[in-house]
Amino acid sequence: MAASLKDATAIVGIGQTPFAKRLPESEKTLACRAVLAALDDAGIAPSEVDAFASYTMEETDEVEIAKAIGAGDVTFFSKVGYGGGGSCATVAHLAAAVATGQASVGVAWRSRKRGSGPRPWKNTAVQLPTPAQWTRPFGLLRPADEIAMLARRYMHEYGATRDHLFNVALACRNRANQNPAAIMYERPLTREMYMTARWISEPLCLFDNCLETDGALACVIVSAERARDCRRKAVYVHSVAQGLPSQHHGMVNYWNDDPLSGPAWTAARHLWKQADFGPEDVDVAQIYDAFTPLIPLSLEGYGFCGRGEGGAFTEGGALEIGGQLPINTGGGGLSEAYVHGFNLINEGVKQLRGTSTAQVPDASTCLVTAGEGVPTSALLLRS
Amino acid sequence: MARSDTDTLLSPVIDDDGAPFWEYASRGELRIQACARPDCGALRFPPRPCCPHCQSFDSEWRRMSGRGRIWSYVLPHPPLLPAYAELAPYNAILVELADAPHIRLAGNLVSGPNAPLNSIPSERLRIGAKVQVVFAYVGGVAVPRWVLERL
């Protein structure tokens, strides 16, 4: 029997920069600030860091970060692909490295000036990988267009409505309105605003799309044993999973029998198989929300409801504090900050420490997910 | 086929696996890659080096009827690349092929082969509508477009 990752490691430090449409400092400087803040939060010296993990889309690299913060000899470093699908996998890779003795102090980070920097889809010189020839010439230019295609089919097949998508946008906005660090802290959302907003790609409107944010975040992972001596309450990494389903095609998942059951289903099967608890025991969830339709799809994929029931699940305030499954309690990518989902990881840690600005009373279990609709990853955290 | 105002749109960035598709398109033929092993013959899209069912590297390109149904569609609005923003809102559709329902080609519903991407009023788009392939030239490359089977 192979060694288990279950509760073998813990997140003991989190750090973040301010979030804004435009920050003056470089991505590298922001990354260093977030990493050092996370280490300070943990009470661990930078010289003890011996592992790094980030996204392939991250533009600051281990060499630069390690030498800037004064890391020691680094013995594990890893980058995970597929944009926001890699968020939770950064923690997963570090957990595996620490649990198997490859390293002892791991730092995961994401720094991105997506608010003031370029929109990736505008770069026509660097075409997207292989599938682009089958979609881009026809005007499916942006991730919003690609997901809107699945969203319309989902609404058609299962009777999901724009009101269901509004429920998602509203829950995130309401939590952001409680979070002074959130971009949308002082900006309430109404149904009227949502229903009359400009379209981005019908059936998705402005408020179905995440923010465009400058900012950086980081977290620190150590063994469960070491975690007991850290400054903060340990948040254990209970279960981790990545998911690349058979015959999956990334965000343009149009060429298989069932385009509406994506990587979340694959990651979920592995995640729950290794866990001591199930979806019904999750106190709070941080679900990747680059676009509102990813929430109903993820609710189905991770087993909170049946196939086609994700829209209806959002009714009656289910996603709000006090509801069946409070989600994205810092405001998420839709209303706190869009930093490829790393803020969802840190918010999960805050909930289990009891320090969220929208605290779920006595939360002891949290699901964090990465981007659905691309090869993905997920974490179950517990206190 | 006449060149048209669609020349300013993106043309496909063709890779080795996809090249035959575009070559056939330039002859006005819609062909999909299939396994050439006699006891397999599975269709696959997007094209790739070997068959995911039997792992054979032998492939052929099977001609499709060019008929299909709209599986889903979107209406993009700005911000978009300039050539597309000029046409917005236009439609982008996914067509489920009558000959292979799990293969859904992205394209555009137009009023005729060289009509612009916004030539069909958006209220005429409907999931399930029957469509037929036509071909238009974009930047010198023939690309599939779709017209309603019943106008």
Can you walk me through this structure?
The complex is a heterodimer of chains A (383) and B (151). Chain A is built from twelve helices and eleven strands. Chain A has helices at 27-42, 62-69, 87-99, 143-158, 162-176, 191-195, 224-227, 263-273, 294-301, 310-313, 332-335, 342-353; strands at 9-16, 51-55, 76-80, 106-113, 199-202, 204-205, 214-223, 235-243, 284-286, 365-369, 376-382. Chain B starts with 18 loop residues before the first helix and ends with a strand. Chain B is globular, with a radius of gyration of 16 Å. With 151 residues, chain B is mainly beta. Chain B contains two helices and seven strands. Helix content of chain B is 8%, strand content 34%. Chain A binds chain B through residues 119, 122, 124, 127, 130-142, 144-145, 148-150, 152-153, 156, 198-203, 247, 249, 252, 254-257, 259, and chain B through 9-15, 17-18, 45-46, 52, 71-77, 79-81, 84, 87, 89-90, 92, 94, 102-108, 117, 122, 127, 138, 143.
List keywords for this structure.
heterodimer, A: 383 residues, alpha/beta, Peroxisomal Thiolase, Chain A, domain 1, nine-stranded mixed sheet, two-stranded antiparallel sheet, 12 helices, 11 strands, 17% strand, B: 151 residues, mainly beta, five-stranded antiparallel sheet, two-stranded antiparallel ribbon, 2 helices, globular, disordered N terminus
Short description:
With 383 residues, chain A is α/β, with parallel strands linked by helices. Chain A is built from twelve helices and eleven strands. In chain A, strands 3-2-4-7-1-8-11-10-9 form a nine-stranded mixed β-sheet.
SSE diagram, text form:
The complex is a heterodimer of chains A (383) and B (151).
Chain A (H helix, E strand, L loop, with lengths): L8 E8 L10 H16 L8 E5 L6 H8 L6 E5 L6 H13 L6 E8 L29 H16 L3 H15 L14 H5 L3 E4 L1 E2 L8 E10 H4 L7 E9 L19 H11 L10 E3 L7 H8 L8 H4 L18 H4 L6 H12 L11 E5 L6 E7 L1
Parallel strand pairs in A: 2-3, 2-4, 9-10
Antiparallel strand pairs in A: 1-7, 1-8, 4-7, 5-6, 8-11, 10-11
Helix pairs in contact in A: 1-2, 8-9
Chain B lengths: L18 H8 L4 E5 L23 E5 L3 E10 L5 H4 L6 E6 L2 E8 L22 E9 L2 E8 L3
Antiparallel strand pairs in B: 1-2, 3-4, 3-6, 4-5, 6-7
